[in-house]
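Need residues for this backbone.
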């Protein structure tokens, strides 16, 4: 199964999309990467979901990536006696460490570290911005607050304190246990939430130890301030607009998105735009026009992937959400102005010989006689370098490592496939031409450009550009 689009789709699995049949349906509808959200669900739920992804992968005949999204230091309220309370501006509410169920006057906030930084005048944002409090009085283990905006608070709602750095590690004890489990079941990517410093990613890389690619979620102002250094320590990045939108003013979020996408594209690492892409489709079979434009803008920016969260995890229309996102992406990529608008976001060319060779290959591929590019890759680095140039022609990424092929499923424009390591350059050339023809990426006799290193060379050390032609008949 070939994806006739360049921008990839990430879908979150949850109660609305679990089960082998549903996962296969989503894969056939266009999902390239399945997200396992470790903020919810038991370990066995995620193990079962990943098993379903592997079954779907076998059924459709293309690699599918699995992304484990670690919760990070998420702060939440406790529970209310009746499940929730009605509130209004001026309502007084105490946050404290008492484990008793909450009521109209008080509720548990089971995070002692938060009380250490709460001071009068500090704003507290709850439930993704739907409720705002201001601290009027505070002390050890409590904060008396006044409601500034909001109508209702219910159990376990998330909490943020804009503009304040809470001194907690990015990897909690829960995250470490979840990470160990995710690596044991064989995920391809690990995303770390609330990354604020490059050291957060360095810790994650040390724990992962090469068993998966690592991705930084930018959700805090400190993460934006340290963006360049964080990306240098990461294999990919997510524009996590939900929590970022809580921490920043609304007008700042689009600018932050552009900044993160551009920085990732300069480096040639995949970037995901996430949160509320088609949010209304959690309950409606069609998106709003604004949501369709939001998806389209992500494609015009040249993001590697767009992500569905509640739309596929808990929504009423998971398959339809994927189908509509796929249709929007295809339509934008059919726009004659799309290549120029997307390439306007491209960073400067690197000075390395490898990048110069790959840039030359993508320029050569613009000739009408060229059907596709083929990147032979051991670690995935060569294929990612090709994708960095955003060639409009299909890019077949061939590797002998299944793990590498799956991880490349997140990368813009790549069609990753697994094949045996070629013994010499001639076998490499013939194999590339045959596979391109068999997959329908190159018509008989069409030109195929191959970028590779020596068959057993160092990872990413592309030093070969070769031109061949698709066979005119099978076996020739």
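Answer:
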């Amino acid at each position: 199964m070939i994806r006739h689009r360049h921008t990839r789709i990430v879908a979150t699995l949850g109660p609305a999309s679990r089960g082998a049949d549903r996962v296969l349906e989503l894969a056939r509808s266009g999902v390239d990467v399945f997200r396992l959200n470790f903020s919810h669900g038991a370990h066995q739920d995620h193990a079962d979901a990943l098993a379903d992804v592997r079954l779907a992968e076998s059924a459709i005949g293309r690699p599918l990536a699995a992304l484990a999204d670690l919760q990070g230091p998420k702060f939440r309220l406790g529970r209310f006696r009746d499940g929730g309370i009605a509130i209004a501006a001026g309502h007084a509410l105490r946050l404290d460490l008492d484990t008793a169920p909450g009521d109209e006057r008080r509720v548990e906030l089971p995070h002692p570290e938060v009380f250490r930084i709460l001071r009068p005048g500090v704003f507290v944002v709850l439930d993704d911005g739907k409720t705002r409090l201001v601290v009027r009085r505070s002390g050890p283990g409590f904060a008396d607050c006044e409601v500034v905006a909001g109508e209702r608070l219910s159990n376990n709602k998330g909490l943020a304190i804009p503009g304040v750095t809470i001194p907690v590690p990015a990897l909690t004890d829960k995250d470490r246990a979840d990470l160990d489990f995710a690596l044991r079941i064989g995920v391809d990517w690990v995303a770390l939430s609330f990354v604020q410093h490059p050291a957060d990613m360095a810790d994650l890389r040390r724990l992962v130890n090469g068993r998966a690619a690592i991705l930084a979620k930018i959700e805090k102002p400190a993460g934006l301030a340290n963006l360049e250094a964080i990306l240098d320590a990461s294999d990919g990045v997510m524009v996590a607009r939900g929590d970022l939108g809580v921490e920043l003013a609304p007008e700042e979020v689009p600018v932050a998105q552009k900044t993160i996408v551009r920085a990732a594209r300069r480096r040639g690492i995949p970037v995901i735009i996430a949160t509320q892409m088609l949010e209304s489709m959690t309950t409606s079979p069609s998106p709003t026009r604004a949501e369709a434009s939001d998806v389209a803008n992500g494609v015009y920016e040249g993001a590697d992937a767009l992500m569905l969260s509640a739309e596929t995890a808990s929504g009423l229309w998971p398959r339809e959400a994927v189908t509509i996102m796929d249709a929007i992406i295809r339509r934008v990529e059919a726009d004659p102005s799309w290549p120029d608008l997307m390439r306007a976001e491209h960073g400067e060319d690197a000075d390395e010989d490898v990048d110069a060779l790959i840039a030359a290959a993508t320029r050569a591929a613009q000739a009408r006689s060229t059907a596709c590019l083929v990147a032979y890759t051991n670690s995935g680095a060569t294929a990612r370098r090709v994708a960095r140039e955003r060639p409009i022609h299909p890019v077949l990424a061939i590797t002998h490592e299944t793990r590498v092929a799956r991880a490349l499923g997140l990368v813009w424009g790549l069609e990753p496939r697994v094949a045996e390591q070629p013994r010499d350059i001639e076998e490499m050339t013939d194999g590339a031409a045959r596979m391109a023809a068999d997959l329908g990426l190159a018509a008989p006799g069409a030109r195929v450009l191959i970028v590779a290193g020596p068959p057993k060379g160092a990872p990413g050390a592309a030093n070969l550009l070769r031109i061949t032609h698709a066979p005119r008949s099978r076996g020739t």
